[in-house]
Amino acid sequence: MINLFNYIDRPSPIHRLTGACKLICLILWTLAAMTSFYTPLLLAMTVASLLLFRIAKLKVKDISFVVGLMLVYIVLNNVLIFLFSPDHGTSIYGTETVLLKLVGPYVITAEQLFYHLNVILKNACTVPIVLLFVCTTNPSEFAASLNRVGVSYKISYAVALALRYIPDIQREYRDISLAQQARGTEMSKKASLVNRLKAASTILIPLILSSMDRIETITGKRPAFYKLDCKSKDALRTVFSAHKIDAIIHFAAFKAVGESVKKPLQYYRNNLDSAFSLLEVMEEFDCKKFIFSSSATVYGPNNPHPYKEEMPAIQSSSPYGWTKVMIERVLTDYVTAHPDFCAILLRYFNPIGSHESGLLGDDPNGIPNNLMPYIGRVAAGQLEKLTIFGNDYPTPDGTCQRDYLHVVDLAVGHLKALEFAKDKEGVEAINLGTGNGISVLELVNAFKTANEMDLPYVFGPRRDGDLPAFWADAEKAKTLLGWEATHTVEDMCRSAWNFAKNASGN
Fold it and tell me: Cα(first)–Cα(last) distance of the chain, in Å?
């Protein structure tokens, strides 16, 4: 895969240096290289930059594309210098040793050649150090380092966000291009340059513009978008400084039950720290309305279904669920300390489906952890078959039962919660679900029927953290918010397939 200015995580002494320290060294290094024409110094700096690359455990293949661009730039830069300043070398060194006379004012001199050599060395010793800084500095730390040397939050994090977005673009470009080649689109070096550029543009343009454009198409509005780490209070301050924010809907969390069992530390670190940082920055900016994306998993394995809000929500069967339990506890304690604060705990059940336009939906990287995206990939031919985890549960057909909720109904629930919180204080837990339990096998059959297709599946072993069955009592949402689910299971299945078709190019 092509690498453009990626942070590359390696266990090296240079990685362990602070971003501010590396930035100061980069500035001093660049100033020394750009202001000097002392060739031995430039040669020494070039050798040193290569040694630093070795110490950082970076390899040429990590930055091969950038190296190619650098070589092209060096050639073009020297050609342009000669075309527009053919006697610059003689003016610097004060002598003229003619080697070859060309047309008009163009004369090749020893001084000019020596000047070009120094320009090449300047690039050769500076560009690797810039790449070294970018490749060994996490984007969030990069932003913080810029801020420490006097750059404003807005500018520093705008740069960091751009750098953070590049690897995602590259990854998605690679995945889509491989899929296109599998369908017969020639994008290899065998194709002509024109055809390769044409094929690449059909991928890149929608890739760069897709999400925001789709939202604008559907809503008529283009939201302000910041890609950042919610654990970073500095990054959050950038957003709060740029906008007057009255309320927060907090979705930023890892969310796969099975994965959380295998990676508990990642889930606790990400989900808890992001919530803590967000609450602290909200307090700084006097923002007092908080809609929390909680989960039915807070009810744990011992409560009977349907789950009601007054049941104990202090247990879970997975690290993911425990993060929700803990954050709910934190919010309850926070409201006790700040009585004018309002926290709405929306306990979702199982959101599935997509926007009816087919433009927005769930399209995760890799093999999906959630059922409906998995079904969509199998239906689109991107995966061979669906694996249903467990068929020996104490349910009518042996597969898990869940309360599947259309994602559009879920979105409406959040809008209702915002309206409810506008004039409220304190903490309130509210279920968002349909009140009906549907098994995995029933959902698979509903998808097949709604979309008139077959769907190959096999049964696999139970997945860690999964409960046999649960669904919601949704009366409180109806009473307090005036909300209830309106979409059927068939609606969910048809909308999910509509999006999956568009996402796969079928």
Answer: 25
CA atoms within 13 A on the CB side of 447: 31
Q: What number of other Cβ atoms are within 10 A of residue 170's Cβ?
A: 18
Name the phi and psi angles at 347, rounded to 5. Answer: -90, 95
d(CA 214, CA 438): 31
Digit-coded pLDDT (tens) for 210-227:
566 667 766 777 788 888
Residue in 353, 290, 300 with CA at minimum distance from that of residue 324: 300
Q: How far is CA 396 from CA 401, 438, 448, in A?
A: 9, 10, 20
Element (H, E) at 247: strand 247-250
Q: Which two tokens stand for residue 394?
A: 């104490």
Instruction: For the chain, give every domain's residue range.
Output: 13-137, 244-504
Question: Of 336, 245, 329, whose CA–CA distance to 292 is shortest?
Answer: 329
408-445 pLDDT, tens digit each = 999 999 999 999 999 899 999 999 999 999 999 999 99
DSSP code at position 496: H
- Answer yes or no: are the C-beta atoms of 256 and 320 closer than 8 Å: yes
Residues marked active site are found at 320
Indicate the CATH number of 244-504 among 3.30.2000.30, 1.20.1050.10, 3.40.50.720, 2.30.40.10: 3.40.50.720
Q: Are strands 247-250 and 289-295 parallel, antiparallel or unpaired?
A: parallel
CA 496 → CA 172, 198, 279, 295, 330, distances in Å?
21, 30, 34, 21, 35
Check if the beta carbon of residue 111 is closer than 8 Å to that of residue 92.
yes
447 vs 367, more confident: 447
Contact 228, 239 (CB under 8 A): yes
Could you tell me which residues are beta bridge partners of residue 386? 457
Angle CA(206)–CA(207)–CA(209) in degrees, nearest 5? 65
pTM over 0.70: no
Nearest to 119 by CA among 48, 33, 199, 41: 33
Q: What does the block give as tokens for 362?
A: 């769930």
